[in-house]
C-alpha cells in the first residue's frame, strides 16, 4: 500500500477548490470572458491562496513518503517537524511552491482560454468534450515546461534536513547536476499534471454546462 495521503482524494480536493475559485472570479470580475492578463491574474490568485493553505500538508506528506526519513505515520512526521524545525519546517518550500504553482495556474488558464478560443465552432458544438480535453492537455504541457525548474527546487528544499533555503538549494542542484538537474522528473510530472488538469477541466466544463452555469 502506498504511504501518505491517497493521491486521488488529494488531487481532487486541489482541483475542485482551484476550479471553483477560478469560476467565481471569472464570472464576477470579467463576465466569464477574461483577457490574457486577467486569466493569468485569476489563475495565479486562486492558486496562491490554495498553496499557502496546503503547504504544511504537502511537507508532511513529502517527508513521510521519503526514504530519507523513517516516519511510521504522518502524525509522527508532523510531531518531529514541529519539535526540530518549528513552523518554519512546516512551510519549507513555500517560496518555490508558490513560484511554481502560481505561475503554472496563471499560465495554464491563459493558455486554456486562448486555445479554446481557437477551436472551430463546429468542434465545440458537436464534440465539446474532446475540444476541452485537448485544450487542457496542450495547456498543461506548455505550463509544465515553463515551471519545471521551480518544482525541482521545491522538492529538494522539502527533503533537505538542514533547511538551507532556496538560494543554496539552487546552487547545490546546479553544482551537482548542471542545468539538466532542473529538468529532472519533467516527463512524469508533465504527463501526470497534464492529464490530471485536462480531465479536471473537461469534467468541470461539462458540469457547469449541465447545471446551467454556462
Biggest beta sheet summary: none
Measured between the Cα atoms of the first and last residue, the distance is 41 Å
- Strand composition percent: under 5%
Q: Output the helix-strand order.
A: HHHHHHHHH
Low-confidence stretches are none
Helix content: over 70%
What value does the average pLDDT take? 84
What would the principal axes of the Cα set say about the shape?
elongated
Sheet/helix structural class: mainly alpha
Using only C-alpha atoms, the radius of gyration works out to: 19 Å
Helix count from the secondary structure assignment:
9
| Total number of strands | 0
Task: Looking at this protein, list some descriptive labels.
single chain, mainly alpha, 9 helices, 78% helix
Task: Describe the overall structure.
- This protein is mostly helical and 214 residues long.
- 78% of the residues lie in helices and 0% in strands.
- It contains nine helices and no strands.
- Helix 7 crosses helix 8.
- The chain is elongated, with a radius of gyration of 19 Å.
- The model has no long low-confidence stretch (mean pLDDT 84).
Write the topology of this structure.
Blueprint: H1 7-29, H2 36-65, H3 74-84, H4 87-90, H5 94-118, H6 121-126, H7 128-158, H8 166-177, H9 186-210
Give a brief rundown of this model.
With 214 residues, this protein is mostly helical. Helices cover 78% and strands 0% of the residues.
Amino acid at each position: 500500500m502506498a504511504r501518505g495521503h491517497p493521491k486521488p482524494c488529494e488531487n481532487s480536493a486541489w482541483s475542485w477548490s482551484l476550479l471553483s475559485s477560478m469560476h467565481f472570479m471569472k464570472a464576477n470580475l470579467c463576465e466569464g470572458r477574461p483577457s490574457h492578463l486577467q486569466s493569468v491574474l485569476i489563475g495565479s490568485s486562486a492558486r496562491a491562496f490554495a498553496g499557502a493553505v496546503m503547504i504544511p500538508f504537502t511537507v508532511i506528506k513529502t517527508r513521510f513518503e521519503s526514504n530519507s526519513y523513517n516516519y511510521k505515520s504522518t502524525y509522527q512526521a508532523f510531531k518531529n517537524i514541529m519539535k526540530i524545525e518549528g513552523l518554519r519546517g512546516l512551510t519549507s518550500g513555500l517560496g518555490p511552491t508558490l513560484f511554481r504553482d502560481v505561475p503554472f495556474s496563471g499560465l495554464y488558464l491563459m493558455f486554456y482560454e486562448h486555445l479554446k478560443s481557437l477551436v472551430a465552432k463546429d468542434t465545440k458544438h458537436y464534440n465539446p468534450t474532446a475540444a476541452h480535453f485537448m485544450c487542457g492537455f496542450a495547456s498543461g504541457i506548455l505550463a509544465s515546461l515553463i515551471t519545471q525548474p521551480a518544482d525541482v527546487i521545491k522538492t529538494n528544499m522539502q527533503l533537505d534536513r538542514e533547511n538551507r533555503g532556496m538560494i543554496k538549494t539552487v546552487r547545490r542542484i546546479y553544482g551537482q547536476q548542471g542545468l539538466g538537474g532542473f529538468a529532472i522528473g519533467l516527463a512524469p510530472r508533465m504527463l501526470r499534471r497534464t492529464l490530471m488538469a485536462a480531465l479536471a477541466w473537461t469534467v468541470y466544463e461539462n458540469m457547469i454546462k449541465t447545471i446551467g452555469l454556462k
